[in-house]
User: Which sequence fits this backbone?
């Protein structure tokens, strides 16, 4: 949520520089609106901002220019100087990616449709600017989490009899005026995420770590993240920094085996000897290229599956229709998995986030 607030505040600052009266009250209203919307959908963000931040018809073309600049990589134009004659065309985000007629035609952004195309493109094939845009959207991803029943109790209108509160109140009032009740509270189901940083996963590792950062920021107490390659490294602490760039820099310093080999079986055995994943959703992001013994990987996954609430394997190559799990690691893993999902695009990460919200 901190990343979302920082992004919206920066956008409002850009609007004010362009002459739009996007004050703090309007910005707070936009944040409240986004709390009920899918912030990874550019259209919902566009219309929420347009309806809350714009005060006059003259704000609309300026808003379009700033939205394209801030979320689409273009440079924002400042408001015309007083006395200048400006010809504006009030347009919403177009359905197609076309631009028409002159400078103001360029101001009508194709950001929404372009971002929708980016959602389904392989991140390994994006340009640097396109990848930055995907990373901005990932930073705003709300990693909602499925809830599970806690051992703790809280006062409730319905539930079991709370004898202690009932008796305490009766002693205070001199009679039993009302039976007090209690029910179990809920808490987010924990997630244990393993991110493969070996050489074969290099095109996807940074984006996966950005996704991990969004999960940690959403539920810091219920998320643990480890890098896997030739060594098992806990990087949860590094990912708790609110700024994604700073967090990724700290992660890069903490991981000693970037772009090396993959020994998943040995690393999962190390994890199980030191930690537990009891009741958690375990997510392994890897292409399954195992340099070690696949039978060892299968045995450790069997142990892990007995602890975990659910086992999800994220493979970037699963996003292609002709994909077949032929590597030794994937063949060893399949019998122990609940889900094998794609991990090559923004849309795939959004789908994974939804799975975690309902696991």
Assistant:
């Amino acid at each position: 949520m901190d990343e979302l607030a920082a992004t919206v505040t920066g956008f409002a600052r850009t609007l004010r520089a362009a002459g739009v009266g996007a004050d703090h009250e309007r910005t707070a209203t936009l944040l409240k609106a986004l709390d009920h919307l899918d912030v990874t959908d550019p259209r919902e963000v566009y219309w929420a901002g347009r309806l809350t931040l714009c005060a006059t018809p003259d704000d609309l073309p300026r808003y379009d220019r700033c939205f394209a600049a801030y979320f689409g990589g273009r440079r924002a134009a400042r408001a015309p100087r007083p006395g200048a004659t400006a010809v504006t065309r009030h347009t919403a985000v177009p359905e197609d990616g076309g631009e028409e007629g002159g400078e103001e035609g360029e101001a009508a952004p194709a950001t929404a449709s372009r971002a929708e195309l980016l959602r389904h493109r392989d991140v390994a094939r994006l340009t640097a600017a396109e990848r930055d845009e995907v990373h901005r959207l990932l930073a705003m991803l709300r990693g909602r989490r499925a809830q599970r029943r806690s051992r703790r109790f809280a006062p409730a209108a319905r539930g079991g009899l709370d004898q202690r509160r009932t008796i305490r109140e009766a002693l205070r009032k001199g009679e039993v005026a009302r039976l007090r009740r209690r029910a179990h509270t809920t808490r987010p189901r924990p997630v244990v995420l393993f991110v493969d940083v070996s050489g074969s996963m290099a095109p996807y590792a940074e984006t996966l770590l950005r996704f991990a950062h969004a999960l940690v920021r959403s539920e810091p107490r219920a998320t643990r993240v480890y890098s896997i390659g030739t060594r098992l490294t806990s990087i949860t602490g590094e990912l708790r920094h609110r700024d994604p760039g700073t967090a990724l820099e700290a992660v890069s310093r903490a991981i000693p085996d970037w772009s090396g080999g993959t020994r998943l079986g040995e690393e999962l055995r190390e994890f199980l000897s030191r930690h537990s994943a009891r009741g958690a959703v375990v997510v392994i992001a890897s292409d399954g290229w195992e340099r070690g013994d696949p039978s060892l990987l299968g045995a450790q996954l069997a142990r892990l599956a007995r602890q975990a609430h659910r086992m999800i394997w994220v493979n970037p190559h699963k996003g292609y229709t002709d994909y077949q799990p032929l590597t030794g690691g994937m063949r060893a893993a399949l019998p122990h998995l609940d889900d094998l999902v794609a991990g090559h695009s923004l849309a795939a990460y959004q789908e994974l986030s939804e799975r975690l919200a309902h696991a």
User: Anything to note?
Assistant: The radius of gyration is 25 Å. Strands lie at 147-156, 160-161, 181-188, 191-196, 223-228, 233-234, 281-285, 310-315, 339-342. Residues 73-110 have pLDDT under 50 and may be disordered. The first helix runs from residue 2 to 17.
